[in-house]
Amino acid sequence: MYVHTGVNGSVSDGGVLKHTTFYKKLTSGQLMLPQPKLLPNTNTTVPYVFLGDSAFAISKHILKPFPQKNLTHDKRIFNYRLSRARRVVENAFGILSSRFRLFKKPIMVDVKNIDVIILACCALHNFLSKKSKNYITNNCVDREDFECATLRGGLWRQEQTLLDVNQCNQSNTEEGKTVRNIFKEYFNGVGSVDFQEKMINVLGN
């Protein structure tokens, strides 16, 4: 997981990304990503991708959900599968904020020390998640019940509400849309899972 600090909080996630060394290397082909591979049980080759929400611009290596307006069944399936994968990141940052309470209000220290504090918390989070059995328990993270078609949010969600970020004008690429459609067809075809039909109705994708 990549962590970047030093950009104003009013900037959207997509805007923050564009200021990172990670993004510059991604767009210039210097990130050393693995070569594209075949989707399981198909003859279709796809590039390795990173998952984002609607604040990001779609591109060859960045997937985002389809817009919520006029969603077809197949697009809802894609959005559900994307959301399900992104939930890992949401839980990680949600638990980090819940455990390190300074993230729940403005950090009242000299601005020049903010980056160090945030990165230290991230390092401690990684350390404790590996060394302490009680740091992340089963109740901390989101869990789906496929039999009952329900989703139970992690305990961290009961303590805070994540605010929507301001949208940033982004330039979506046609190549990115093509990659997204390939994954959409895969998730609705040979890559489907038996519980996705139940869960798209539960999650409202």
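(the above was protein one; protein two follows)
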Amino acid sequence: MQKYILGAACALILAPSAVADRLVTDISDNRALSHVEEFHWFGGENDFSAGISFADFDGDGDLDIANVNGRHWPVADLLLLNNGKGRFPMAAEIGDWRTTGYGGCPADIDNDGDMDLLVPRDWLAVGIFQNDGAGHLSEAGTIGAAGHARSCATPDLNNDGVADLVIADRGGASFYAYGPLAPGVETHPLTDVAAVGVATGDLNGDGKSDIVLAMRGDATLAVLFAEETGYADPVLLGRDDLQSRSVAIADWDGDGDLDLVTAVLTGSNQVYLNNDGDFDRAVIIGPPSEISAGVRVTDLDGDGRPDAVFANEGQNSVMMNGIGGARRILLPGENDTYDLDVGDLNGDGMPDIGFANSDAPNTLFFLIPTGDPE
């Protein structure tokens, strides 16, 4: 059985944006967003980038970049190695074949201490790429059957200390698998909804990882609560005309439970607020004209509250989650952005942002202290 919940909405006051070759937009008294264009482009207009992930693949203590490309067309995926300062002077193609990649999930799937990579793909099974410890990723087989995978997550679903896998499949073949993740691992059907994004977290405080799927049709999100074995039927949130491609989980309102920050393709971005495992109210955090394909949450201004970064068709945006309400900042450049990730790329202790742009070079934005000449 599927349950539907329609949320109420509140208003949003929008802040003005600033655009320049080098953008410095005040976020708080001591931080700013900065984009240095000439150093931080990678990929090209023919790459159809659909995924970007930050992780330490070569074991040197900084975050490298896995750039997954293709979507419906075979394109090479790329691993870029960080020199510790947010520069990426070395890169290599991932695997022997160019494939139809979407997303990408770094995880130590074989418990050998280094970061491997799982790649969901269109018309192909999920690809496994194992790390030799120095950042060389080699094809090691596949998981599941060929389908229409769009996104992945690698939580520890059964609390055994080993990474598991959840795949969102637009064709209705979403599944999960318990680790260790290896070729031929048993997969378990999840639900037949048309899912394109996935996030996991303990939404009802029972100590188990629940699953949230972003949907293209029928509703905005599907929430699947963990049971003693397996998962309950999905609880559908939102309307069928508010389609989503990505969802992030964070305590947006600071009440101690996890809310659902949702990128919406066909309307305003939303936060579905958690009330003891029920999501009976939605808050609007963007204009209806914004077409958002991806979202990540991070504390950009150091106030202890999660902020949201959205990957858009057009200008990408940041939604600052202040005590007095949300404030929107537009970033420079207009692209068809499919995915993003956040993390400290240059070792200054502040989160940076990477965007995977389809039909255009990819971009990195760095959060730096206001007035810093670099």
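Reviewer note on protein two: The two ends are 56 Å apart (CA to CA).
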